[in-house]
Amino acid sequence: MQSSPLLLEEPIRMSSILEPSKPSFFPAMTKIVGTLGPKSRSVEVISRCLEAGMSVARFDFSWGDPEYHQETLENLRAAIKSSKKLCAVMLDTVGPELQVVNKTEHPISLEADTLVVLTPDQNKEATSNLLPVNFSGLSKAVKKGDTIFIGQYLFTGSETTSVWLEVDEVDGEDVTCLIKNSATLPGSLYTLNVSQIHIDLPTLTDKDKEVISTWGVQNNIDFLSLSYTRHAEDVRHAREFLSKLGDLKQTQIFAKIENTEGLTHFDEILREADGIILSRGNLGIDLPPEKVFLFQKAAIYKCNMAGKPAVVTRVVDTMTDNLRPTRAEATDVANAVLDGSDAIVLGAETLRGLYPVETISIVGKICAEAEKVFNQDLYFKKAVKYAGEPMSHLESIASSAVRAAVKVKASVIICFTSSGRAARLIAKYRPTMPVISVVIPQLKTNQLRWTFTGAFEARQSLIVRGLFPNLADPRHPAESTSATNESILKVALDHGKAFGIIKSHDRVVVCQKVGDSSVVKIIELEE
Hints:
Blueprint: E1 31-35, H1 43-52, E2 54-60, H2 66-83, E3 88-92, E4 98-101, E5 108-110, E6 115-119, E7 130-132, H3 138-141, E8 147-151, E9 162-171, E10 174-179, E11 183-185, E12 189-194, H4 206-218, E13 223-226, H5 232-243, E14 252-257, H6 260-264, H7 266-272, E15 275-278, H8 280-286, H9 289-306, E16 310-312, H10 327-339, E17 343-346, H11 348-351, H12 356-372, H13 376-387, H14 393-407, E18 412-417, H15 421-428, E19 435-439, E20 442-445, E21 450-453, H16 455-460, E22 467-471, H17 482-498, E23 507-514, E24 517-524
Parallel strand pairs: 1-2, 1-17, 2-3, 3-13, 6-7, 13-14, 14-15, 15-16, 16-17, 18-19, 18-23, 19-22
Antiparallel strand pairs: 4-12, 5-11, 6-10, 8-9, 8-12, 9-10, 20-21, 23-24
């Protein structure tokens, strides 16, 4: 049975902060998206990442070729099988990303108050005075006085690996810049960001389309992270493209908001997308520092009220090289949870960081602690008020299930679903207990072969806060006789007991369809 949650608005016994946290089967309700790469692609490390709490694996195609990522994905599948932990796959597009190309791969040192030329001629060698870029239209997009940032992670607060440039002169296709801070650019690829300037390149590039239609189709990707989403039309275009690729019509599109253009059209983008990724690295450059928190809070609130996942990036950058986050980073993770985030994306920290498993574990622990003081009562009232009256039938059932579970201090909510929509709506109201989504597969045919649905729907729950999917036996339909429902409920309860989520005398709230009716019932378990 659930204990009463702490509230930050109420007095907390300070010594209780020092008490160790109780172990839980679920590391946190907030999900963790881990980017797999050089330091996190072996079966052993991926298995440990899954055990630590990673529920979505992100494949970033701004580097590495499809063969490399395929090998990593095969290792992920082996790790899923051995650890028995479900994990979804996210393909992150490159989009209209501007890059500096350093074919020599030697570090490049840039000195403050000297000049450097940006040229579209990629045949030239990168030096301290000359940097080739992958965009021939840069000279037409910028003017004297404009700001350009270059680096692997752009500006992070530790400015030894990213550089701030000011446009000094435009000469033909070349752009001469004044270097504002000394830095060393390591590796072969760096991102180039021009602050608050429109870059005339498509959001879904030809290279992205090729990767999606080959690697994406081959691997039935669950999520498409649409980099540099600037307009709702970008999402519509991507969805139209996916609809022609067989099973990928089920792939969910997460719009990545990375600049002020995307921010300006946020509401329209949210209506079209399945979820939002707040890319605070690039956006943090386009926005004044004092406005970044405001965008985060407003964007997450809009996502929460729309019942669409909000995902936050760039929270523990320093853990790329360190075993502990800074105090500011630890607080940042907690605030993302208190703001209402569904998931946290780890990029460099797991891609090439020295401590990928430890990073996932620590972020999960911070999320779990923040969830204990999340004001669910206030949030619930806001969500119900925003939904308005009359509520839709499904919304009414979902909110009632959560209210009942909180009032009776249920240990879990079990929801039977075939599309996943009912379970996501329950999770929208942020219950304090886990929601176990029992996804019932459905048999479909295209007149050539039989297929079961359900796997996509189960994996796509893995990015929603508080939602934990189970793929049920296809012999149990979601809508059936009471006898069959009791049978599948027993399987779900036994599963919960086996993992220690449900104990004797606990109360459990069940949401299911019986015939044409949606039913919410409270069960008190016996010995």
